[in-house]
């Protein structure tokens, strides 16, 4: 085997070692979320939580297997392993393209689910489930938003206010304030701020949409980069299979 193909062999091994580690990481996260359900369930919602867990476990396990086969095939110069690896890499590539198409096609449904879940979270869980309270607080502070799809009005029906758990004479959580150090910045009745100029008026669903739109080129670039790496992996696998075949003829 020539020097060039030896380089291809080691490049293929390095590529698949990274693939293998990444798959193991995703698998570990999925298993952790499944085991430590109490931490993540309140944030994701009971309906979708098992789907998220098993998707991460399935994808992570599959990528882990693909990376393992690629590493073994490269080291052992096994034509059978490399062929199976090539097939699985095509499956991953097609799956990613399909996932991208589905994400684009069903983005309205995803937004509807996010809106519904956010509304339930604000209404029933904020102020009662610590993990949810912390997550919503962080989101409103970092994304400079307030409430869900209807902005600060969503807090009008929140149990945090209707059941008297919120401080008296406040309209929204303190995290909705533009300047949290300003006394009375969230003064008013539930969902009815006395001075809306002192709070964020954009809903968090819209803020998330705008954030995704701003990051779309980065996300697209990452997707293209991953796709190109996989294509290179296919090419390297083909070259190595051809070299192995020629060597044993």
Automatic annotation (TrEMBL):
InterPro entries under this entry?
Tetraspanin/Peripherin, Tetraspanin_animals, Tetraspanin_CS, Tetraspanin_EC2_sf
> Chief subcellular site?
membrane
List where the protein spans the membrane: 12-33, 48-72, 84-106, 216-240
| The organism's place on the tree of life at top rank | Eukaryota
SUPFAM superfamilies in UniProt: Tetraspanin (SSF48652)
UniProt subcellular location: Membrane
Q: Which GO terms describe its cellular component?
A: membrane
Q: How does it sit in the membrane?
A: Multi-pass membrane protein
Q: Which Gene3D superfamilies match?
A: Tetraspanin
Segment forming the signal sequence: none
Family the entry assigns? Belongs to the tetraspanin (TM4SF) family.
Protein's UniProt name: Tetraspanin
């Amino acid at each position: 085997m020539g020097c060039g193909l030896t380089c291809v062999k080691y490049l293929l091994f390095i590529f698949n070692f990274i693939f293998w580690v990444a798959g193991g990481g995703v698998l570990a996260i999925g298993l952790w979320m499944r085991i430590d359900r109490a931490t993540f369930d309140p944030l994701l919602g009971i309906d979708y939580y098992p789907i998220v867990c098993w998707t991460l476990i399935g994808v992570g396990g599959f990528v882990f297997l693909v990376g393992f086969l690629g590493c073994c095939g490269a080291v052992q110069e096994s034509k059978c392993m490399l062929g199976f690896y090539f097939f699985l890499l095509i499956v991953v590539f097609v799956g990613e393209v399909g996932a991208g198409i589905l994400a684009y096609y069903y983005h309205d449904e995803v937004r509807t689910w996010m809106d519904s879940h956010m509304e339930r979270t604000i209404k029933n869980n904020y102020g009662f489930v610590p993990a949810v309270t912390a997550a919503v607080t962080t989101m409103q502070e970092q994304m400079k938003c307030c409430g869900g799809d209807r902005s600060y009005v969503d807090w009008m029906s929140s149990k945090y206010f209707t059941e008297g758990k919120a401080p008296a004479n406040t309209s929204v959580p303190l995290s909705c304030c533009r300047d949290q150090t300003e006394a009375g910045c969230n003064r008013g009745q539930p969902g009815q701020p006395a001075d809306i100029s002192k709070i964020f008026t954009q809903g968090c669903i819209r803020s998330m949409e705008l954030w995704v739109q701003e990051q779309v080129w980065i996300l697209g670039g990452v997707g293209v980069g991953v796709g190109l790496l996989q294509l290179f992996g296919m090419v390297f696998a083909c070259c190595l299979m051809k070299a192995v075949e020629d060597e044993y003829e």
